[in-house]
Amino acid sequence: MSIEEKIIEGAGELFQKYGIRSVSMDDIARHLSISKKTIYQYYKDKDEIVSLALKKHMEFEKSEYDQIFDKGSNAIEELAKVSKCMRKDFKEMNPSLLFDMQKYHPNAWSIWLNFKNEYIKNQVMENLKKGIAEGYYREDINPDVLARMRVELVQMGFNEDIFPSDLYKLSELQLLFFDHFVHGIVTEKGRELYENYIVNESSNQNK
Fold this sequence. Notes:
By secondary structure, this protein is mainly alpha-helical. It has one domain (53-206): Tetracycline Repressor, domain 2 (Orthogonal Bundle). Helices cover 77% and strands 0% of the residues. The chain has helices at 3-18, 25-32, 36-42, 46-71, 75-91, 97-104, 106-134, 143-156, 170-185, 188-206.
């Protein structure tokens, strides 16, 4: 891994854990055991690092979720695997991440919005259409509306005005949103299959 890649990866780790605003260039340098001068040899400012770290994270998430949707045998299996990924992805994520991005890093915010409104929304919509065709989701749902609602729920979980981090844990909140979403779209057949996947996943973790 090159020094440029190490800087982006190290900065991304800090942003995920502590948020963006609270992480300084000195913090990044200290975390990587390099000088701040070295960072500035490769990147002009923190804003550039934030955007590149976000792009790297988006590429990783896209690869992770592409595998789920490419290999899932049915729409319910895809949901169960998405739930598992969410547990991991949100576990150490700082709730101030999106707020910091929106307020202080408009370029990165634009990258996130595009990823949310294009890639995530489209994947949700395709899963909904697939689930309806398989009989696992209710026929009366509107895939476009629900896909838009779902991605906005993800973003809402980061809103400190609605869900203060001292009262709500981000990972638990996102999984609660997801659970409500799933149980609002499934048929009885879909619910039974989803719960079987979750029970099996839970038993595998306890082995």
